[in-house]
């Protein structure tokens, strides 16, 4: 007999507490269930069930075997679900969490193309500037930038952005330009509070040495665009990703504070709940973003 079927029959008898209910659950006859269990016991050379006229219960050996058998059956079920999901068309509601500035500037413009490619998917994109708990808050995925915190979440790198210190020409005229990293301690710094290390700037010196600048800063905000606006207004030096400052830099509204420093790079990631397989709608959107961002090229970030 089929080993997996024998295992399923035995586990179902334990789950249901008897052969009659197990037969109903499996959609086969009671005698067929009994035959599967008897065949399993004969093959293993052990009695797995205590049978009385009133009830059926697992023996000590049977209980130990049940725990392993249930894991095997669950794995088999997930394997079947994986194949089914990979062959089915992506569909359903896709809930995405993304930082406001990145969502407005880079996700919103491409959503139309994605929805056209996958008409069975509907998207709920939530723009916010806080760290969301994907599972407890009901999100399918999130877009996160920079160092990922230790997590059980799965992640896939979509692209990367560069990060530089910038300020307005007006600011440099009034306060001067820092010549070395230590000079930053004497300047007005603008911090992005949404990052866990918002008050700490990690900088690479020209020598390649990794440095950290710690200061409370003159202004802290939880929105990247607001931080850029503050830098453009001459309020201080901001440490921003290029997808935020690129246009302002090209328009001469801001300048690099220390152009001789090595360029810092940050990854842009799709993160999603753990599991043995990824939902088709999530996989479809991540694949779409990877291709879309690759077409734009590295200069877009």
How large a portion of the residues is in β-strands, by DSSP E? 15-25%
Largest sheet report: 9 strands, mixed
- Give the C-level CATH assignment of the largest domain: Alpha Beta
Backbone structural class: alpha/beta
Instruction: Give the count of helical stretches.
Output: 9
Radius of gyration: 29 Å
Which architecture of the largest domain does the CATH hierarchy give at level 2?
3-Layer(aba) Sandwich
Percent of residues in helices comes to: 40-55%
N-to-C CA distance: 60 Å
Shape: elongated
Q: How many domains comprise the coordinates?
A: 3
CATH topology of the largest domain: D-Maltodextrin-Binding Protein, domain 2
What is the H-and-E element order?
HHHEEHEHEEEHEEEEHEHEEH
Keywords: DNA-binding, Transcription, Transcription regulation
Domain HTH lysR-type: 1-59
Family: Belongs to the LysR transcriptional regulatory family.
Protein name: LysR family transcriptional regulator
Structure write-up:
α1 (about 5-15) packs across α2 (about 20-25), α1 crosses α3 and α1 (about 5-15) crosses α4. This protein folds into three domains: about 5-85, Arc Repressor Mutant, subunit A, CATH 1.10.10; about 90-160 and about 270-300, D-Maltodextrin-Binding Protein, domain 2, CATH 3.40.190; about 160-265, Periplasmic binding protein-like II (D-Maltodextrin-Binding Protein, domain 2), CATH 3.40.190. The N and C termini lie far apart (about 60 Å). The strands form three sheets. Strands 3, 4, 5, 6, 7, 10, 11, 12 and 13 form a nine-stranded mixed sheet that branches. A two-stranded antiparallel sheet has the order 1-2. The protein has about 300 residues and is α/β, with parallel strands linked by helices. The model has no long low-confidence stretch (mean pLDDT about 85). It has helices at about 5-15, 20-25, 30-45, 60-85, 100-115, 170-175, 225-230, 240-250, 280-295, and strands spanning about 50, 55-60, 90-100, 120-125, 140-145, 155-165, 190, 200-205, 210-215, 220, 235-240, 255, 265-270. The longest helix has 28 residues, at about 60-85. It comes from Halocynthiibacter halioticoli.
């Amino acid at each position: 007999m089929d080993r997996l079927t024998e295992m399923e029959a035995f586990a179902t008898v334990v789950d249901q507490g008897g052969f009659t209910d197990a037969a109903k659950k499996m959609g086969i006859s009671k005698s067929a269930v009994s035959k599967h269990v008897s065949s399993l016991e004969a093959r293993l050379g052990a009695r797995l069930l205590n049978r009385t006229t009133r009830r059926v219960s697992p023996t000590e050996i049977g209980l130990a075997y049940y725990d392993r058998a249930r894991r095997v059956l669950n794995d088999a079920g997930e394997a079947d679900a994986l194949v089914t999901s990979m062959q089915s068309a992506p569909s359903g509601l896709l809930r995405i969490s993304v930082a406001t500035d990145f969502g407005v500037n880079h996700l919103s413009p491409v959503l139309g193309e994605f929805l056209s490619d996958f008409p069975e998917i509907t998207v709920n994109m939530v723009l916010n500037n806080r760290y969301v708990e994907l599972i407890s808050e009901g999100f399918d995925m999130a877009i996160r930038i920079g160092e990922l915190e230790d997590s059980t979440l799965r992640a896939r790198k979509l692209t990367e952005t560069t990060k530089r210190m910038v300020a307005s020409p007006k600011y440099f005229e009034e306060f001067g330009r820092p010549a070395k990293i230590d000079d930053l301690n004497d300047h007005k710094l603008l911090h992005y509070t949404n990052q866990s290390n918002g008050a700490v700037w990690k900088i690479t010196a020209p020598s390649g040495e990794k440095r950290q600048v710690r200061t409370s800063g003159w202004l802290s905000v939880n929105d990247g665009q607001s931080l850029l606006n503050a830098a453009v207004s001459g309020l201080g030096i901001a440490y921003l990703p290029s997808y935020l400052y690129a246009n302002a830099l090209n328009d001469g509204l801001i300048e690099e504070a220390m152009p001789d420093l090595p360029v810092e790079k940050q990854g842009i990631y799709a993160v999603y709940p753990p599991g043995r397989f990824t939902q088709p709608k999530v996989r479809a959107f991540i694949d779409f973003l990877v291709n879309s961002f690759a077409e734009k090229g590295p200069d877009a970030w």
